[in-house]
């Protein structure tokens, strides 16, 4: 499988969430895990496989996330008015992208894997760069559209149309595309994920206090990984 050029992928981080389930009112992107802010962790990894980074925030967002994005050399944009939420964030990120592919990730996934991003991008163009497919992980029957590859030319208009019809759910948009077989979708199943991310931590989020505690335990454990072991 041919690896896509680094210049062909934009990393799109969705940073407009309000962290309601976490409970403390602080943006998840500004939490420290392993001595580093979550947004910085994500950006540092994506810089190794993406030619540009886009941070999507909500209109009027007043926390420190936009400033941190600028400090990390990310292009900061806001949700596409009059829409808001994750589907609008995906659209805004794709609209700001200058590459063929956009890798979209929610800002609460601190363990994004460069190996997984590269493998998903390669799967997107396995039939050639003229016919790229979205690549969406699916575990236990559930799609993960906020950790996925989207070809910009096909998916920007498709999501814009969905928004105009009142759709707000990224998962429903993916499900409709798989049924209609357009735009093309390649499903990354559990076996695909494990090959690219053997430790299976890329999809770990920090939505709740319990999940955040788990993520911190994972981070502590990784500090003692033998030097010869690849973290992905």
Describe this structure in words.
The chain starts with 8 loop residues before the first strand and ends in a 10-residue tail after the last helix. The protein has a single domain, classed as Alpha-Beta Complex (Spore Coat Polysaccharide Biosynthesis Protein SpsA, Chain A). The chain is globular, with a radius of gyration of 17 Å. The chain contains 8 helices and 10 strands. The relative contact order is 0.17. The C terminus is likely disordered. The strands form 3 sheets. Strands 5-4-1-6-9 form a 5-stranded mixed beta sheet, sandwiched between helices. Strands 8-7-10 form a 3-stranded mixed beta sheet. With 232 residues, it is an alpha/beta fold. Helix 3 packs across helix 5. Helices cover 35% and strands 19% of the residues.
């Amino acid at each position: 499988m041919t690896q896509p050029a680094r210049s062909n992928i934009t990393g799109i981080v969705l940073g407009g969430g309000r962290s309601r389930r976490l409970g403390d009112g602080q943006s998840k992107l500004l939490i420290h895990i392993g001595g580093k802010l979550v947004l910085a962790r994500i950006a540092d990894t994506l810089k190794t496989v993406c030619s540009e980074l886009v941070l999507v925030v909500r209109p009027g967002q007043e926390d420190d996330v936009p400033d941190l994005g600028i400090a990390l050399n990310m292009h900061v944009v806001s949700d596409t008015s009059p829409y808001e939420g994750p589907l609008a964030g995906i659209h805004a990120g794709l609209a700001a992208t200058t590459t063929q592919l956009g890798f979209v990730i929610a800002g609460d996934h601190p363990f994004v894997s460069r190996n997984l991003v590269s493998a998903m991008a390669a799967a997107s163009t396995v039939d050639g760069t003229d016919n790229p497919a979205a690549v969406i992980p699916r575990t236990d029957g559930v799609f993960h559209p906020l950790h996925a590859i989207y070809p910009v030319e096909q998916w920007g208009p498709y999501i814009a149309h969905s928004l105009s019809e009142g759709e707000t759910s990224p998962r429903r948009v993916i499900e409709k595309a798989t049924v209609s077989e357009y735009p093309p979708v390649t499903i990354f199943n559990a076996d695909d994920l494990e090959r690219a991310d053997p430790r299976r931590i890329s999809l770990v989020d920090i939505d709740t206090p319990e999940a955040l505690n788990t993520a911190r335990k994972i981070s502590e454990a990784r500090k003692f990984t033998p030097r010869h072991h690849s973290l992905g």
